[in-house]
Amino acid sequence: MANLEMRGISKRFDKGLVLDNISLKVPDGTFAILLGPSGCGKSTLLRIIAGLESHTSGQVFIDGAPVDRLSPAARDIAMVFQHYALYPHLSVRENLAFGLSMRKTPRHVIEERIADTAQLLNIQELLDRKPKDLSGGQRQRVAMGRAMVRKPKLFLFDEPLSNLDAQLRTNTRIELKKLQQRLGATIIYVTHDQVEAMTLGDVVVVMDGGHIQQADPPHQTYLYPANPFVASFIGTPPMNLWQGRLRQEGGTGIFLVGGLEWTLPPFAMGDTGSFAGHAVLGIRPEDIRLEPTTRPAIHIEASIDLNEDLGADQIIHCSMMGESLVVRASQRPLVSPGQTLSLFLPHDKLHLFIDDRRINLLPNSDP
Amino acid sequence: MMQRLLLVLGISLTVVGSLAPFVWFVLTSFKTQQEVEAVPPLWWPSGGWHFYRAALFDHHLLSYVGNSVIVAGSTTLLALVIGIPAAYVLARVKLPGKPWILGGLLTVSMFPQMAIAGPIWRLLANVQGLNTHWGLILPYVTFSLPLVIWILASFFKELPAELEEAARVDGCNTWQTLTRIMLPLATPGIFTAAILTFIYSWNEFFFALLILTQPDKHTLPLGIALFQGEFTIPWGELAAASVLATLPLVFIVLLCQRWIISGLSAGAVKG
Prior knowledge:
The complex is a heterodimer. By secondary structure, chain A is an alpha+beta fold. In chain A, strands 6-7-8-3-9-10 form a six-stranded mixed sheet, with helices on both faces. In chain A, strands 13-12-11-14-19-20 form a six-stranded antiparallel sheet. Chain A is elongated and about 75 Å long. In chain A, helix 2 packs parallel to helix 4 (136-148). Helix content of chain A is 23%, strand content 36%. By secondary structure, chain B is mainly α. Chain B folds into two domains: 1-48, no CATH class; 52-270, MetI-like fold (Orthogonal Bundle). At the A-B interface, strand 6, helix 2 and helix 4 of A face helix 8 and helix 9 of B.
């Protein structure tokens, strides 16, 4: 087990910069998720850590030692590929043994490790089968086993669950988390699935456009998104975000969106405390209340366009003065299109962004 | 229904058409001399191994078989040994001007044999390659390489790159990745290339005629074509020798067919 550090990693392809000055520290035993939309550079970053791809500038350290010039094998990492990449002509046992025998590990050690790993992953019965005789879930296990059997310093996962069906993905996700906790392994895990990211990760590194947008524990990322991109990327349905004009005078802020004018709690902005300019205001669909609360809140009226009934929840799509709004509410009362809703946006649940950066509102000082 | 009928008819005509000459010389090889010369021609032979015996012992067929095995076998082996690494590099490594290399290979294979016969003869004459097996193997390898490389390169391209990356992570260098992972998976392609090369060099006539003038070096097609009869063309012996020359090919193709089919269904990644 080991820690990983990246300093100023950049990668330029013919079409442009894919990674721009990425720096990140992953402590020993951390389950780190690289999350982002396709094309954000997360897979490229993983491949750079693995040594399968070269970087244009910057350095990668494993346990404090630079590994930039080392081959993938010499870095002592193991990778689980998206399509598993099991060697089709070898049995499961030979697949597990391959990396070890390439490293000239003694025969009896290999046998021992395979037995341990097979037991841990519950694949003892599969050892003599060929990959083509395995189901998707079994192949996934074998692929993980092939990584684990080597006891590498670092595990790299490239969207390992994306080829499984929904039920199996959920089960495998839970097992994977348990396994990581048991092994205390350091894992770098690439995914575009935010549920995987939130449930598995100790740290979620949200990436977009070749930059790290935010690297924080999942709940931190959810509660305090660093910018509008993270705010809209994490959470289903995504956070409501409104582009508008903001002005702060004295102790309160006024946010103008469409024809609406909302009073905000004060926020820390510069030394003077006064501000006027463009801003983005957001609130999560699940934070909007249908009943008045004792906490200070923005009160709005919105008409319902569409209601998606999910069983446990309903997703209500509303509009107000040309602005759209999504509310996630518990099942009762079930509302129907055409109705007008009275909605409350609690001050302490609002997210304010100026110049793409989060500005903390100070709701407690609000009268 | 009509379509089905046409399909069956079409297939039958093709099969009969291609097999008819073959069937005819198989039948001929079992006839007696009188039956071979009978007018109108007789269909069924009265049987007998007479012509086979004549072909094998009077016409030294076995010595030609030996020569052909050496030439075709070496050609196939050499073409694979050179072609496999070349194809792997062309399929996987980023090279400047790769399309030009592949295009060049294709162009080379399009030259008419007649156009290059003269230069090849002169070149071989200069290096004492005439009337030697290697003098024939060398041009054969040259002619088969473009096809071998094209077949294998397209095979390597089809194999998922993830497998090679997994091998690199597991500790393979490029050569080990090729021999331990890619080659076993490219078996069908290798067999296809090998069979085509073997058939080509087993059947090739023109360059053999050009390069080999001494009877003891003759390959099968050449040897058979130059069978000497006393007063007539020895049709019966020719037929028997042709059957014997064709049998190894049929045998090899049938044997390898199994490999080609089983290799194709390997299912490298997801399935």
